Amino acid sequence: MVRLGLIIALVAIVGILLSGFAAFRIYDQEAAVERIALGRAIDVHASQVQDRLTERELLGRVASGLFRTPAIIKADMLKPLRSSIYAFKTDFLLASWVVRLKGPEFTAAETELANAGFTDIKIRHSDGSLIDPATQDQPLDVVMDIEPRNDETIKLLGRSLDDHPVLGQMFARSLADGKPEASDPARLQVPGAPIGIVLAAPVMSEDATEAVGFITFSYDLSALMLTNDDMSLFSVVLKDPRQANVELVADEHGKVSERHANPDGPQPTVIRTVTFGDRDWSLAYYAKVSPYVRAQQVAAIVAAIGLALTFIVCGLFGYVTNSNIRLRREIEIRIGFERRLTAVIDELNHRVKNILAVIQSIVTRTLRHGSDMDVARELLIGRIHAMSNVVSLLSESQWQGVMLKGLFEARAIPHADRIAVNGPDIAVSARAAQSLSLLFFELASHSDEGLSLVGKHPHIVASWEVTGDGADSMFNFRWEEFNTSEATRRPDSEFGVILLDRVAPEALGGSAKRYFTDVSYVYELTAPMETVVDMNERDRTGQISAPLRRS
């Protein structure tokens, strides 16, 4: 046996070493191939993004070059350009003509907007507040024409964009440099308000000495970034030029949102720079699947094939060893089952003896010498039925306790429908349940005795509460029969007196008292909660009824 074990160990070592070497070589080659493929895909994507950005910047330059007219304060300046700008098919969301107006020119601009059929013609700030021409000593950049025109976009006509937190800076840079400039990423002023970029191209005067206005094009950022589908090898995000730790990312629906870059999370695989609007933009590429994952998978397959034969040989030895261990476990389970069965039988014998002792006491006390046989028979049947009911409830719960309100069911005690029950539905122990079931039956069986004398049934209220916390908590029970007096209520039987005053209180480790008030008969029982619940009994029963486990 030892020699066989050494041979199997030697074969296993040689097989593992050869398989590991082959897997390492395959992993190295596949990783190199995947890295090259990912790099090429990223380079192609960055080149396509740059081409799209160049087309859009060219559109701005061409559109601004076509503006060679002195009549710049017009509300239809984009009309001659519509066929040209749409021919580029650059999927812009909004194009606008922004003219530089001085204070004295406000009236002419408002007149032009009114002649074009617009109702809101006052020159306003970007937030909608009116501008007083007398207070303006510098030209303002005001929207005079827009494309496309709809109920949302025409609200921008007549608005000055100089005080806009993003577009104002863009116009200032374009005016200073005299060439197209791109804005920072921001919410576009179009329906749906996606995050995008605005390109402003300055329109020069006839003598090319100063800018008289701007042609602007607004683009959805997701279209510029060429976001990829689920089959792409990578995901691309745009680094926010305003905040170094913020990235702009598009979801599967093309909606762009901001997210904070996690310095401790995955880092970009590659960063590429593209140029648009006289600015550099950084595209960060994150590999969706690490180039090393496929290499690991292929290497794992090779290693699995190499180890298969080794495992077959070693598996024979493992099968024999496992069979021996399983046989030993089955023997241990069988021994444990027999011990558990013995404990269950002992516990069952103990409970049966207790029940028989209680029944013997009931029969002896009920059928005492000189008692009325009809009454005794009825009480005996009721008391045994109460015991049978509580045993049924305990069997259903595997002797781990009975819900207290279940002892007040109609099958357990007489006149249950006339008893008002109040109190938390606590689970009492098996011993407490037996005592309380007989106690409730004894109280309920005498509750209708005064009917023939007072002419109506007594009203019964059974209530209990738990006071105190932890080991000091107490169970307080109160039974009160209204419409009953000492003159109309039949005295309790000998067995009932013993049960009410001694047996039940002693079984619960508490005390009891009964008395008559002016309008009712009262029975009160007080006992510690630790004897009413009896967690030791519940734990012991739970251990016996718990399923067997393998050691």
Automatic annotation (TrEMBL):
Ranges for domain CHASE: 142-225
Keyword Kinase tagged: yes
Keyword Hydrolase: no
GO MF: kinase activity
EC number: 2.7.13.3
Enzyme class: transferase
Transmembrane regions: 298-320
Xref: InterPro entries: CHASE_dom, Sig_transdc_His_kinase_HWE
Reaction(s) the record says it catalyses: ATP + protein L-histidine = ADP + protein N-phospho-L-histidine
Superkingdom, taxonomy of origin: Bacteria
Keywords: ATP-binding, Kinase, Membrane, Nucleotide-binding, Phosphoprotein, Transferase, Transmembrane, Transmembrane helix
PANTHER family: HISTIDINE KINASE, TWO-COMPONENT SYSTEM SENSOR PROTEIN
Protein name as annotated: histidine kinase
Originating organism: Rhodopseudomonas telluris
